[in-house]
Design the sequence.
């Protein structure tokens, strides 16, 4: 719970870019957001992270592994990366690529995951472009999939990276981050 105030400060700037993701705007909502993430982590279904700008130590966003599942036969771990958001200032700065590089390295190299998936509102062109640039493979759109943040029903675009694709994705990320 130690990151609530820093996350709330990060979420307090320009909120226009948060149209397609959950970014709590008040303390009670942020406490509930963090509590839910920590409960999922305690249950073994996720891992929550904050993104920190190393230049000044400020929290600039958040992301998490979610829907983490361990298959019985074969013994394989899979997860989704979601709830990703960054401050307006951090967007386009390379912070998302760095965050995904760290998370994907942990997923494939430390945890031995077989698959990491991503889901976004199909209308979120910026997120879809970022996932494509990341090297995630587009799997398709599930129509009328879930409630949208604007009150309607959204279509969801699905992407994934498989363990055998990770070396190529990692090389692309390293090249991007070296620039």
Sequence:
């Amino acid at each position: 719970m130690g990151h609530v105030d820093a996350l709330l400060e990060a979420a307090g700037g320009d909120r226009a870019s948060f149209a397609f993701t959950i970014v709590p705007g008040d303390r009670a909502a942020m406490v509930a957001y963090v509590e839910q993430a920590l409960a999922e982590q305690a249950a073994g279904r996720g891992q929550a992270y904050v993104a920190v700008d190393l230049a000044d130590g400020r929290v600039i966003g958040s992301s998490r592994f979610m829907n983490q599942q361990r298959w019985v036969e074969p013994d394989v771990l899979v997860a989704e990366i979601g709830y990703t958001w960054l401050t307006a200032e951090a967007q386009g700065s390379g912070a998302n690529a760095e965050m995904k590089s760290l998370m994907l390295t942990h997923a494939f190299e430390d945890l031995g995951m077989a698959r990491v998936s991503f889901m976004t509102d199909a209308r979120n062109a910026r997120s879809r472009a970022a996932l494509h640039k990341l090297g995630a493979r587009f799997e398709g759109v599930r129509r009328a999939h879930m409630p949208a943040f604007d009150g309607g029903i959204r279509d969801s675009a699905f992407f994934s990276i498989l363990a055998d694709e990770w070396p190529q994705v990692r090389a692309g990320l390293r090249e991007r981050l070296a620039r």
Summary: The longest helix spans residues 27-42. The first strand starts at residue 47 and ends at 52. The chain has a mean pLDDT of 93.
